[in-house]
Amino acid sequence: MQKIEQVLAFIIEIEKLKNVIRKTKPVGLDRYENAAEHSWHVCLAALMLKDYANEAINIDRVIKMLLIHDLGEIDAGDTIIYASETPEIKRAEANGIKRLLALLPEGCGDEYLQLWYEFEAGESADAKYAKAIDRVPPLLHNLHGNGHSWSAHQVSKDKVFAVNSRISQGSVPLWQVLETKLHAAVASGIL
What we know:
Structural class: mainly alpha
Shape: globular
Number of helices: 12
Distance between the termini: 54 Å
Largest sheet: none
Radius of gyration: 17 Å
Mean pLDDT: 96
Number of strands: 0
Helix content: 55-70%
Order of helices and strands: HHHHHHHHHHHH
């Protein structure tokens, strides 16, 4: 029973991810997305786009990565991807994920901590694909929201292309489609 209580405490604590507000608005909504919504969205996107990964992937591992990848933001807060990812921010996120996973029964968080570090490193096929998919919803939010976040944060088109070209490391065909959409956004004046 004690282990169940620990898991329930973890589940309650991660509710706080719903209060971490991101920098983009979901398509068709006039409010900003929270990090929990983002985690759900990227998991479903990963599942639907899995056949377009550059390499063979384990979709179960990818979904686990995406479910936990932003948990550290409960403590560290959200930082827009176009701002530099400083060592201080990454350290705060790592400390946050460690704190949260320590709420679980001993040893139960080990797999998830390793997956978090694997995602952050972005070197395995699973992590490359997960990181690629992590970029998709914010792009779609901006492409279908008149570039709201790009303009609010004065993000240049060069920065948008540079940061998001990383998608090709996980899925070349996905990047080809999105790159075309970004060029159309430039032509229409929203980027």
